Amino acid sequence: MIEFKDVWKRFKGTDAVRGITCTIEDQEIFGLLGPNGAGKSTLIMTMSTVYRATSGEILVDGHSVNTEPGKVKELIGISFQDPKYDRILTAREILQWHAKVTGVEKGVREKRIDDVLTKFGLTFEARKRTWMLSGGTKKKIENAKIFVQRPKVAVFDEPTAYLDVPSRLLVWDMIDELRDEGSTVLLATNMMDEADRMSDRVGIVSKGEMVQVGTPDALKGTLKGRDIIEMTLEKPIPELPAEMKKIEDIQDAHFEGDTLVLLLSNGRELLPHVINIATAKGAKVQSVNLKQPSLEDVFLHYTGMKLA
pLDDT at position 200, please? Predict the structure, then answer.
């Protein structure tokens, strides 16, 4: 478990993190969603003992970042947003060094490294000096460090930046596997689809504050009256809109041609009930389409900003 208790981090009069309080459960994938400069990386660096909080407390598996930084470091592995390597080292040497300093047993190091490099398709590339590698390959090596280490708390800062679609999907699958093996995952991202697909819960970060926390579906559900059901009938039933408006969560109901359009909350839960009412009134349903708010709609609602 990770606990943030009223955490503040100030740099020369600027509050990069402003009173963040939240709890991340064991074996949870917790997404930090926000634009660059929102405070995500600063919060991660503070939790990881790179920065010291101006005030507040962070506990990692019961250990205080302020008073037990050495113990906290043993629990955490970080894949940084923009990896910086010694140019003369090979990618394999980077992984060997990381495995050694993070305490991976000598007897399993090389097998883990081989397995991860094979998954990424980097067995040959790993022999090259890092200055010869593309940005995408460097990012894969940075993520590979964590998959080799398998820490108690795995932190990924923009893990799929610079990666193509197949590589993104692979990283997502490997993060899922890491969690299934026992790791708690903190995922900082500015990609809506990544936060939605990967996170058990999402914390929306804006201007250093955690403005909302919840599962992706629960966050979308906070936007009341934003769901739309479009039900195309063989022919309109004039009394149906009035009948639908009797349901508490339906804000509006009207026909557009042969299509009954409902504006409502909790559309997924109400959909079977709506269909039952329509058929009970003699409607012959030809198709049904449910549109729900996206995580981007949620982010815009709570922050007033769009993510590029």
Answer: 96
Q: What pLDDT, on a 0 to 100 scale, did the predictor assign at position 308?
A: 55
The C-alpha angle with vertex 82 and arms to 193 and 79, in degrees rounded to 5, equals 70
Please give the single-letter amino acid code of residue 208. G
DSSP output for 214-260:
E-HHHHHHTSTT-EEEEEEESS--TTHHHHHTTSTTEEEEEEETTEE
Structure tokens at 17: 């993190």
CATH for 184: 3.40.50.300
Bridge partners of residue 102, in order along the sequence: none
Share of the chain above pLDDT 90, in %: 70
- 11 and 30 share a domain? yes
Burial of 304 (0-12, 13-18, 19+ CB in 10 A): exposed
Domain span including residue 280: 224-292
- Structurally, how many domains does the chain consist of? 2
Check whether residue 166 and residue 235 sit in a common domain.
no
